[in-house]
Design brief:
The protein is mainly alpha-helical and 501 residues long. Helices cover 81% and strands 0% of the residues.
Length: 501
């Protein structure tokens, strides 16, 4: 009898392992597919991944855990969708998923970038135009996903209370007002400098200041200091450079915001009696795996490049400095690699930037891969060596992004009971919604830029993208078709639209 039970347990264990392997294969397949439609920047991928892993019964990710991942990813430097992919894999499959998730997500963009980097010298401008035309179809699909995400946030908050529902409008409206000015003007084709157009990281800085200083202390002194300091900070960080003549005023405001945030944090800790209980073994294990990942994949660059060490250190440092999304990273890459002479300005702007902006995936990862590729190719004259050094740079971007994410992630579990953190967690989705409007405007503007190469009216292209997005939204809501099929159809419709005109 005992032997029979042991055999039964062994059979059950084998069956469970088989199911887990099947699930891991499904996860890898799904995250790889998400990487293929990874247009629109980090926040644009939030609803895409939510659809693929939270609302998909084949996976066990729950909404609360995913919201926490989104919050932490928004707080850390690096590639946001790469961090989310790692978190999703880690929750379900541990270390395997933690590493496979971000690598497989970023891989489609890197593979396509490799092909384009190799053939770019012989690629005609017309061929690149076809890629851009196909990207318009993908833009319509992504805009529909973002609208669906925003609609679901409203629906969820309406079920909580009418008060929460109305405040959702207010939060989204404020985020839109402070972040989308330049994007609106760009769509309109108006050469006007926006008063604000605050970056994502600066917008989140204000949110955290309000959360730590004002939340739970709504007396006259706290309200007045919050409004005054936030206004000075936002005007100082705005595109119009409104306070350029008094930079010290902005600096003073920033210092006071930091001091008051810390004071508010200590008050909150004292009030809630929070104790940080860190699992040092788990933290050490996580960072050791990422260190090994970075070091092992750095070997090709160390072998092929004479100046590999300073280059790879700049790779890691630039990733840690990357706040504000992929487009913001391009300015960091310019200063870190172009000004320092690692790649020429001509290669960076005419080849690397062209490729990373028309392909899916993380801009940060593709940019660093491209810089590594051209450095290896320039040093050896061999395409294979360029690919190997590109992989070294790519690994650095993945490893640094995920290391930064897990540093904050493990601290978050200890401080999540703070009132300020609960406040941010409650409003992070509406805040993301406001940022997604900026993403949609950027997608529309990028599509409209094809007017110069195709001769089609900017407004006709905008109408086409909006109609395509609306059609996708209605089809998705009504029929729930396979998203990958919808993407293929959208690309075909987009190409037909441009060919017909």
């Amino acid at each position: 009898m005992e032997l029979k039970n042991k055999n039964k347990d062994a059979h059950k264990s084998a069956s469970d392992n088989k199911k887990k392997k099947m699930k891991l294969k499904s996860f890898c397949s799904e995250i790889f597919k998400v990487g293929f439609i990874g247009f629109g920047g980090g926040n644009a991928l939030v609803p895409v991944m939510e659809d693929a892993f939270v609302r998909n019964d084949d996976f066990d990710e729950d909404q609360k855990t995913y919201d926490k991942d989104v919050l932490v990813a928004n707080l850390t430097p690096g590639a946001l969708p790469v961090e989310l992919a790692s978190a999703l894999g880690n929750h379900a499959f541990g270390v395997k998923g933690m590493i496979l998730g971000p690598v497989l997500f970023a891989l489609p963009g890197v593979i396509m970038a490799s092909i384009l980097f190799v053939v770019l010298s012989s690629l005609s401008e017309g061929a690149l135009n076809y890629i851009n035309m196909a990207a318009v179809g993908v833009a319509g699909f992504i805009m529909a996903l973002l609208c669906d995400y925003i609609a679901k946030v409203f629906e969820k908050n309406k079920t909580i209370s009418d008060k929460r529902f109305k405040r959702t409008y207010l939060v989204i409206g404020l985020v839109f007002f402070f972040t989308c000015g330049s994007a609106v003007y760009k769509v309109l084709g108006v050469d006007v400098t926006s008063l604000f157009s605050i970056s994502t990281v600066h917008m989140l800085a204000v949110v955290f200041f309000i959360a730590f200083w004002l939340h739970g202390n709504r007396n006259a002194f706290h309200i007045i200091t919050t409004i005054v300091l936030s206004a000075i900070f936002l005007l100082g960080q705005g595109k119009a450079d409104f306070l350029a003549d008094v930079p010290y005023l902005v600096t003073i405001a920033e210092i006071l915001m930091v001091i008051l945030s810390v004071v508010g944090l200590f008050q909150s800790v004292k009030k809630t009696r929070v104790h940080l209980e860190l699992d040092r073994k788990k933290i050490s294990k996580t960072f050791l795996f990422w260190l090994i990942f970075i070091v092992v994949l750095a070997i090709p660059a160390l072998v092929l490049l004479d100046y590999a060490v300073p280059f790879l250190l700049r790779d890691l440092l630039s990733t840690f400095m990357s706040f504000g999304g992929g487009d913001a990273y391009l300015t960091i890459a310019d200063g870190m690699f172009v000004d320092a002479g690692y790649v020429s300005e001509d290669v960076f702007y005419s080849q690397i930037i062209t490729v990373v902006n028309v392909l899916p995936g993380s801009i940060l990862c593709k940019t660093l891969y491209g810089i590594g590729y051209y450095m290896g190719y320039s040093a050896t004259g061999l395409v294979g060596c360029g690919i190997l050094t590109g992989i070294s740079a790519f690994a650095g971007s993945i490893g640094a992004s995920c290391a930064a994410f897990y540093l904050i992630y493990y601290l978050y579990s200890g401080i999540s009971k703070l009132g300020a953190i609960e406040f941010i967690a409650r409003w992070i989705r509406p805040i993301v919604c406001g940022l997604l409007i900026k993403v949609m405007l950027a997608l529309a503007s990028s599509s409209m830029s094809l007017s110069d190469s195709t001769g089609i009216s900017r407004w006709l292209i905008l109408i086409f993208v909006i109609v395509l997005a609306i059609a996708n939204y209605l089809v998705k809501r009504r029929f729930k078709l396979n998203p990958w099929l919808m993407v293929v159809v959208d690309i075909a419709i987009s190409l037909l639209f441009f060919w017909a005109l």
